[in-house]
Specification:
With 330 residues, the protein is α/β, with parallel strands linked by helices. It has a domain at 6-165 and 198-224 and 265-307: NAD(P)-binding Rossmann-like Domain (Rossmann fold). The protein contains twelve helices and 16 strands. Strands 3-2-1-4-5-6-10-15-14 form a nine-stranded mixed sheet, sandwiched between helices. Strand 5, helix 6 and strand 6 (157-163) form a beta-alpha-beta unit. Helix 5 packs parallel to helix 6 (134-148) and helix 9 (230-241) packs across helix 12 (316-325). The longest helix is centred in the N-terminal third of the chain and has 21 residues, at 94-114. The chain is globular and about 60 Å long.
């Protein structure tokens, strides 16, 4: 699919971008363009990939419509990763979140259609389902824009993916907890009962490739992923990194906009969700996209009323296995 193709990744200098580029290079692309606004991150990434000539780095901001449009010339596939992602930042600076996550996405859609891109994969989050914070609202609107864009063009397809927390990504609680164990022998958590979905970075990229290769345009792909209490995750990390320490826990309280439990698809969305295979669900759109539902007519509807992180929680042993798989503990 990607052989001899030109691929563009917005916001591609983060942890998702590194792993995506790493796996895409094995697909023999003609060129991978990394579009982001952080010069230092681009320089570091260029060095990390040993100045691979197939990588082209473009300084730009997705809020700049002209810069986005110019970077999309002759592009075949787009992975739209760029966004303001921290819940607290988006709560405190909603105008910036709106401009980046919504207007920036609109710019990506226009540029993709204008330049006849084959497919755009929009990276969303579990916070987009029944959103309670500004970040979640912006990503939910981004999904709606991307899905609706399939009605605007016959040659460019748009598909979304939803993921939970990626282990070890920038800002991950893994790094925070490890530092607290090392420096303070105390772990701070927001609430003892808080739960989250988790997946490894490799699984996250598998989700991107699945959507890129097998989508028709207009769907939301959701990977079946494990969930656990944040406190249980901290306990397992405490045992691994603080074996000779008496680790204490301090509860800080739920931050503005945070949920106790996340949702990968809501009760309303479950009415349009099908079981795609043993590892994936597909949420079909509420709007009519010609021929899309026929492509999934052989898939059975989900039996879940909603997909909530508080259901089917991992045990400590299962959390340890997940962390070992992600190479966070040995």
């Amino acid at each position: 699919m990607f052989k001899n193709k030109v691929i563009l990744i917005t916001g591609g200098t983060g942890s998702w971008g590194y792993e995506l580029v790493n796996q895409l290079l094995d697909e023999y692309p003609k060129e991978i363009r990394i579009f982001s606004r952080n010069e230092n991150n681009q320089v570091e990434m260029k060095r990390a990939f040993q100045f691979d000539p197939r990588l082209r780095f473009i300084i730009g901001d997705i809020k700049d419509e002209r810069a986005v449009s110019q970077s999309f010339i002759d592009v075949d596939y787009v992975f739209h990763l760029a966004a303001l992602k921290h819940v607290t930042v988006c709560e405190e600076q909603p105008y910036e979140a709106l401009k980046t996550n919504i207007i920036g996405t609109e710019n990506v859609i226009h540029a993709a259609i204008e330049n006849k891109v084959k497919k755009v994969i929009y990276i969303s989050t579990d916070k987009a389902a029944n959103p309670t914070n500004f970040y979640g609202f912006t990503k939910s609107i981004g999904e709606k824009l991307a899905i609706h864009a399939n009605l605007l063009s016959s040659h460019t397809k748009f598909v979304c993916i939803r993921a939970g927390n990626v282990l070890g990504s920038n800002g991950s609680v893994i790094h925070i907890f490890k530092k607290q164990i090392k420096d303070k022998e105390k772990i701070t958590i927001t609430h003892h009962d808080m739960t989250r979905f988790f997946l490894t970075l490799e699984d996250a990229i598998s989700l991107l490739f699945k959507a890129a290769r097998e989508s028709q345009g207009g769907e939301v792909f959701v990977m079946k992923m494990p969930s656990c209490r944040i406190k249980d995750l901290a306990i397992v990390l405490g045992k691994a990194y603080g074996k000779d320490k008496n680790i204490e826990f301090e509860e800080l309280g739920v931050r503005p906009g945070e949920k106790l439990h996340e949702i990968l698809f809501s009760e309303h969305e479950s009415l349009n969700t099908v079981v795609y295979d043993s590892n994936y669900y597909v949420i079909l759109p509420s709007i009519e996209i010609n021929g899309l539902k026929d492509c999934y007519r052989d898939c059975r509807p989900v039996e879940l009323k909603s997909y909530v992180s508080s259901d089917h929680l991992m045990t400590h042993d299962e959390i340890q296995q997940m962390l070992e798989k992600g190479k966070f503990i040995s």
